[in-house]
């Protein structure tokens, strides 16, 4: 088969064109049995392929036909031995990836700044996380990747480790020396699992960091939907044979996945793969050029800093994806959230995320110069307004990143322990039983089992006061936190 073909998307269209008389789920039957307004809005084409795993359309749980062919083409395009489609986002692919290689009590090396889906898989599997501290960037207030040295040290201390997990690249686009990490882990016969949620494009251009499969990693959960042109909620899991069993991966994926798989999402993966494989290089080349031009223009604006290759050179910032525009606004004397809100209110611009110090804007294969010009114009105006509205000099916001809390109990033990709710202000010193994170990016400030510190509570308050979305606790307004019952932590 050729990368120009789309066996799944084409197969669905051919099936829909036959206009079969349907006596099966979904009950809306090509849109005839659904709300009229929604039906008209979504349109007949999408509804005609909102189908289910009837025999002619194959089955994601036991692919033998058009899904198998589509996955094989994706594997070829991504340089994997096997590719599995996910209709439950990269979170679903990540949970499958982890649960395929660890059993209860097994050790897994993970950076502490992982997405909550990784910690969820660790709670569900009962694995023991061995945390590697990521490198912190004191100028930007963000975490980068982990270094080969820290992985080697951890593997020497824990030679019975069953897997190493790496985030590559990070949300902000920084890549670690993944090949170095893979070589070290493989010396210990330990598989490397990569959270490649923000790296679907990197495989398709040589001015991007090495992809997981190029670096020799064993598995990668790769968000095609985030940057690669498929529909939200669709993702893939790439697998290299050797240290990982593809049969086990298929079994776990099936256990974790709905039996009502969305064929619209699956078809969008097939089509996105075709576009990346056949036109990806040219499209990404243009995207990188546009992002670099925009970065240079933003860096001409007073008090703004758009991060670029000058940040490279450490083993945690080994490489980066230039299509990400990470813009530090702290020298304007406002938070990233203030900048996000200003851009929304004044220019109808929506950014990818903001934090206390930065905003992140993504340039993708969808963008054109006319779009980035508006962003540059908006940021110039923001900088002008702040400079003119302040008589005194703008006071830059000092960057502050809290320490990583100490883990006193395994996340699973803490999550399933007897708990009680205590007032937020009185929780310092207790062991937390729930996650607390700012989403996006969804990196936990606390994970179950960690000792609550005053410094981290202050950091949460700082985020709340800035208007950032702090999530996780059952008590959504964070007046109370769930902690392990009557167990005061001893330091
Ligand atoms: C680093 C990282 N990993 C995993 C995920 C999960 O991806 P998804 O939203 O497709 O489930 C995200 C989502 O933001 C992420 O930022």
How would you summarize the topology of this molecule?
Blueprint: H1 7-17, H2 36-42, H3 44-48, H4 66-78, E1 82-86, H5 89-101, E2 107-111, H6 116-125, E3 128-132, E4 136-137, E5 142-143, H7 148-157, E6 163-167, E7 174-175, H8 178-187, E8 192-196, E9 219-222, H9 224-227, E10 235-239, H10 246-256, H11 263-299, E11 305-306, E12 319-320, E13 324-328, H12 336-347, E14 353-354, E15 358-362, H13 369-389, H14 411-416, E16 419-423, E17 430-432, E18 436-438, E19 443-446, H15 454-465, E20 470-471, E21 480-488
Parallel strand pairs: 2-3, 2-6, 6-8, 8-9
Antiparallel strand pairs: 1-10, 4-5, 7-12, 9-10, 11-13, 13-15, 14-15, 16-21, 17-21, 18-19, 18-20
Helix pairs in contact: 1-11, 4-11, 5-6, 5-10, 7-8, 11-13, 12-13
Task: Give short descriptive properties of this protein.
transferase, lyase, globular, 37% helix, alpha+beta, four-stranded antiparallel beta sheet, Orn/Lys/Arg_deCO2ase_major_dom, Prn/Lys/Arg_de-COase_C, seven-stranded mixed beta sheet, Prn/Lys/Arg_de-COase_C_sf, 491 residues
